[in-house]
Amino acid sequence: MRLLRKLTAIAFAHARSVWAYPGAEALRTVFLVVILVVFLALWRTTYAATGAARLGGLSLPQMLEYLAGTEAVLLSAPAFADRIGEDVRTGGLAIQLTRPVSYLLFQLAVAVGESWPRLLVNLLVGTAVVAAATGTLPLGPAGLAAYLAAYLPAFALYAVLFLTLALTSFWLEDAWAVTFLTSRLVMILGGLLVPLTLFPPALGHIARILPLQLMVYGPAQQLAHPFHGLLALLGQQAAWLVALGALLALVYRRGVAALHVQGG
Amino acid sequence: MSREARRFWPRLVLSALRAQLAYPAAFALTTIAMLLNDGIWLAFWWLYFSRFPVVRGWRLEDVAALWAIGATAIGLVQGFAGNLPHLARLIMQGELDVYLSLPKPALPHIALSRLNVSSMGDVLFGPIVFLAMLHPTLARAGLFLLAVLLAAAIYLAFLVLLHSLAFFLGRADLLAEQVTISMVTFSTYPGPIFQGGLRLLLFTVLPAGFIDSMPVSVLRAPDPLFVAEAAGFALLLNGLALWAWRAGLSRYASGNLFQARL
């Protein structure tokens, strides 16, 4: 209970530091608006060219809301590699490790504090753009509830995977390349740019086996089809969370053992 | 330009390159990561065109050409003029003093003093895609080079103009970053999907329209009128950027920072 209070305080402190500059946060949503305008142009052209009312089971407004949902996830994602790499390079890790809270839990609490408010703002801005562009409001209370229910474990999965990759800084000093390339794989195989239902069958099959789609495609699909397959999704997310969580614990233990801090 | 000046600029770039090559493994890893990143974007388009083969007359090959031209042009500017994407911050923090006190022209001196390693992957990506996917011949290589140079000239001037806003607005670094990302994003999607007012915007305020027209109007079906328009626009934008830089510099107030350039 005491630990939870500590972690909540850390998360709130970082949320406050993010929102200390609302103008800067508002400017961050510019890219979201731009990418949705681009997607609107691309998918409007595609729907018109094919003459289809639905593609991959989604109407045009649903497709755009889906893409707003996937972009909201990725644009709110925590930047573990930058922070942990900085700690390793500067030697600040020596101080971080002596804090009365686990380094991993500290990083997760910081991520929650930074990411969750950003996700809600991004989702709000994305939905507003879709509504303005299509004249319909594809996001209802059911869609929002199902999305958030799937987002919580999706966020945990994303955080655990990228925290594990960021910990390779303990050996590599800079994990930028590893995390950068994995984030690009999330974009493609996670269904960030194209829903899995539009993938060629073989690639779609591979994407469904991997956990990347549980972080992006899973929650975003709930926006269009609320609660459809949600229980199965939550079960898959939980199973992968256990597996990746065990990997994270192993990498962390080995990393701390391998760490050699100079100076003082 | 004097003989001494002609030697200075290549030496400056080489010295920035040598500084980065001091860490060869990191250099190679970052370059490869960016190459793979561009490849993953191409994979997205392969995925898209495997389902929808033609979009307003564009095929996968045109998008590959767009990425080849755009990545090389933007990579050349951001890579070798690696300080340009940081120019607004340098202006805002009063860090130009060290360059202004030296006898070389400040703008190219600032721009070329830093080499951005990740852009080297972009620079390599274009020629690789050209050779692998775009039916290379000597004539087409010439057209590819022309498209890259035109796109680079437009992007270079756009960056200088955008970052010079910091002289007038003060804190313009975040704005410059977001507008630059927008410019790059619009430059990497097929031009014909943007219609109406947006198309007009992309040929004026955010001139990505010139870049995303290059695959068709320079490489696939060369259009001399378009090339002349793009070259004229590049000249105009460069003139405007130089004017904005000079006008801004006359308002610049020193940051009173003690800095040394070794």
Order of helices and strands of chain B: HHHHHHHHHHHH
Question: Level of helix content of chain A?
Answer: over 70%
Total count of helical runs of at least 4 residues of chain B = 12
Structural class assignment of chain A: mainly alpha
Rough outline of chain B: globular
Oligomeric organization of the protein chains: heterodimer
What number is the mean pLDDT of chain B?
91
Number of H- or I-type helical stretches of chain A: 13
Q: Largest sheet of chain B, if any?
A: none
Q: What is the string of helix and strand elements of chain A?
A: HHHHHHHHHHHHH
Q: Overall mean pLDDT score of chain A?
A: 88
DSSP strand (E) fraction of chain B?
under 5%
- Proportion in β-strands of chain A: under 5%
> How many domains would you count in the coordinates of chain B?
1
Kindly state the percentage of residues in helix of chain B: over 70%
Q: Compute the number of strand runs of chain A.
A: 0
- Characterize the biggest β-sheet of chain A: none
Of all chain pairs, the largest interface belongs to: A-B, 31 and 34 residues
What is the number of independent domains of chain A? 1
- Write down how many β-strands of chain B occur, each being a DSSP E stretch of 2 or more residues: 0
Distance between the termini of chain A: 33 Å
